[in-house]
Design brief:
mainly alpha, 68% helix
Length: 312
């Protein structure tokens, strides 16, 4: 006879028989006020001020450049918006956070720091175009049909261009810049130079008997993550800027890259991206085979590897 239905037991947040239970309420959230205070340090504040100065200079130069001859000057604002995030992401290499693993911290800072800092240069750029002399400069540089390289009439009021369009692009630049540094600098440095720290950040077993496998696993994971970004980028940009209309033609043109690199670089990039796909597949298989998770750490954080589930 079946037993009557009973209310479920309250979760204890511990691993039970190899399974993972609990809601993770006992674990400390990585992003809190203390983390923000440690992340937004004095260099981040100073670089944010610098980004505001660059944004003002860039937006002012763009206002007086109706034809777009000096269009690169607007990039000063976008580059400046990346500086605080770049510092915060790279800082973890020489000044690790005492509570958050360096690899996770780099990714967290990539997401959070731009949201905290980008609004400063954005507001400064918006105030700049609202100043009567700058607004008059924009109007004087517009063609009779309203065309302006940066502040065309059809794009909306100058304050809208500065606040919304400039702000969103600056935010995107800062996040993408931080992500590229995290993927192509921080993760490889940890994996190849500080493998034990990389293993701990990935919740792998850091015991002496497991570190040989997990050192290899951390390096392979770093390579795999880089390939996950590099392969699509190579293929997409290669197809866009290449001279070929098919994959077969791209392979043929790639051989011509060595005699005329300026013309066939897109085809060569596309082929490199395609050839790296099997490398990524092999890296994925190797990572799954060699890594040895720290089951206790993953249970405490509320995550589980495939091997954890196998133990249920």
């Amino acid at each position: 006879m079946s037993e009557p239905n009973r209310p479920p037991k309250p979760s204890s947040g511990r691993a039970d028989g190899g399974g993972i239970t609990g809601t993770g309420e006992e674990s400390k959230q990585p992003v809190d006020r203390d983390w923000l205070r440690r992340t937004i340090d004095l260099p981040v504040v100073l670089l944010t001020i610098l980004s505001a100065v660059l944004a003002v200079v860039g937006i002012y130069r763009a206002a007086g450049d109706g034809p777009g001859d000096l269009s690169f000057t607007l990039s000063l604002g976008f580059i400046g918006a990346c500086l605080p995030t770049a510092w915060a992401v790279l800082r973890g290499l020489w000044d690790p956070d005492p509570e958050v693993p360096a690899n996770m911290n780099a990714l967290l800072r990539t997401l959070v720091v731009p949201l905290v800092t980008v609004w400063v240069p954005t507001l400064c750029a918006t105030v700049t175009v609202l100043l009567p002399p700058v607004n008059h400069l924009i109007e004087s540089e517009r063609r009779p049909n309203g065309w302006h390289y940066t502040f065309a009439t059809e794009d909306g009021a100058p304050w809208f261009v500065a606040l919304v369009m400039f702000g969103l692009i600056a935010l995107l630049f800062a996040m993408l810049g931080g992500l590229m540094l995290a993927v192509f600098v921080v993760l490889p440095v940890l994996a190849f130079i500080r493998p034990k720290e990389a293993a701990a950040g990935n919740q792998l077993d850091t015991s002496d008997e497991a570190m040989k496998s997990n050192t290899l696993g951390s390096k392979v994971i770093a390579i795999l993550v880089m390939l996950a970004f590099a392969v699509p980028g190579f293929i997409v940009f290669g197809a866009e800027y290449g001279q070929s209309s098919s994959v077969g033609e791209a392979f043929s043109n790639s051989l011509k890259f060595f005699s005329d690199p300026a013309y066939y670089w897109g085809d060569f990039m596309r082929v490199v991206g395609i050839l790296l796909i099997p490398v990524g597949v092999v890296a994925l298989v190797v990572a799954k085979m060699v890594q040895k998770p720290d089951h206790a750490a993953r249970a405490a954080s509320g995550t589980a590897a495939f091997s954890d589930r196998d133990k249920r």
